[in-house]
Amino acid sequence: MPLSDWLSGQPLSLLALGFLACALVIGVVGVRLTREAERFAYVSGLGQAATGAVVLGAITSLPGMATSFTAAAGGHPDLAVSNALGGIAAQTLFLVAADVAYRKTNLEYAAAEEANLSQAVVLIALLVLPILAMAGPDLHLGSAGTLAVHPVTPLLIAGYLAGLRLTAGSHRRPQWQPVLAPAADSEKRPERPRRGELVALVLRLVAMGAVVGLMGWLLSGLAVAATTRTGLSETAAGSTFTAIATSLPELVTALAAIRRGALGLAVGDILGGNAFDVLFVAGSDLLYVEGSLYHAVEPRQIFLVALSIFMVALLLLGLLRREKHGIGNIGFESVMILLAYFAGMALLIAG
User: Fold this and answer.
1) How far is residue 127's CA from residue 120's CA, in Å, rounded to a whole number?
2) What is the pLDDT of residue 242?
3) pLDDT for residue 132
4) What's the alpha-carbon Rg for the chain, to the nearest Å?
5) In sequence order, what E strands does the chain have?
6) Residue 134 in contact with residue 301, Cβ under 8 Å?
7) Residue closest to 100 by CA, chosen among 345, 342, 335
8) What are the helix and strand counts (H, E) for the chain?
């Protein structure tokens, strides 16, 4: 029996306590995970933005992956896709919270670096592919009932891997540097690495990733069980409740990185987690055996993809424009992201 089916029969009070317990564990482990990831960025030579995108983004995305894959395998394509795409929108919104937490200046001004810009462009390109699949002809490789994969799915995987290579390379061989970037805040240099430290760091990151993944799996089951009682559609529930619940690790690690002054790590974590979330759609298509996943979902999924692209484009504009001081303590692009998210979710739920 799936975890969510068993939990759906439990009292709401028990679901709420379980949710709080999982969130607490993620909060404690997430702070430690951020510290280890910052150290890994220096010891490995990847840099903060690339480490956030490649390592931290993938680890904190494990809860969402568990939710989408389980939903697709269980024959719930709308929940699988909306959880992935709603997670991208929610995690982009979390950058507004990070912007508020960073008191010195606008976060997009301080964290502008080539790796983050590259990751944002890659993310937009990856998000366009599901729209092409949903709006295009109903194609799939293989046969329904066994394995039916849309041709866009392998393109998503290849595009993600190419994006990782581009992001990592932009730190080692940068082609440009932002003017007057606060390098002391965004890329602090810790003490010299010790021999064998990289292996120990990797083992600790894997262990903490396993804990985050387990808590995320429990969170996803709790969120799905709670949404079954709301009467919302799979698209509305997946893009709100389950997406936000399974994106909590990104919020915790981004805020922890801000507190440590690791700005590139915070932004890279969000953008890298978003790019990894696009892979949930590809994996869900592999697990959904009834045909093309992209044509099994309702048309409102295109609205959700377009909303995610719009929010990421606003973030990219902020990184390029580099407004030093915005409205109050946050930049103008953060205000626009905030408005776009809540307006989009309201329209999605109302529809």
Assistant:
1) 11
2) 79
3) 92
4) 19
5) 141-143, 147-149
6) yes
7) 335
8) 17, 2
Pair of tokens at residue 284: 């869900």
Pull the structure tokens for residue 244. Answer: 């936000």
Domain residue ranges in the chain: 3-350
Are residues 115 and 127 in contact, defined by beta-carbon separation less than 8 angstroms? Answer: no
The encoded tokens of residue 91 equal 């995690």
- Burial zone of 96 (CB within 10 Å; 0-12 exposed, 13-18 middle, 19+ buried): buried
Cβ neighbours around 123 below 10 Å, total: 30
Which of 50, 36, 30 has its CA nearest to residue 197? 36
Structure tokens at 140: 């799939």
Alpha carbon distance 212, 105 (integer Å): 31
φ, ψ at 149 (rounded to 5°): -115, 130
CATH homologous superfamily for the domain 3-350:
NCX, central ion-binding region (1.20.1420.30)
What would you measure as the largest C-alpha separation in the chain, in angstroms? 58
Q: What are phi and psi of 327, to 5 degrees?
A: -90, 110
As averages over each run of 10 residues, the pLDDT of the chain (351 residues) reads 69 82 84 86 78 82 83 85 89 85 71 77 93 86 69 92 79 63 48 71 89 79 71 75 81 84 81 87 89 88 93 86 62 86 88 66
Residue type, 244: I
323 CB neighbour count, 10 Å cutoff: 17
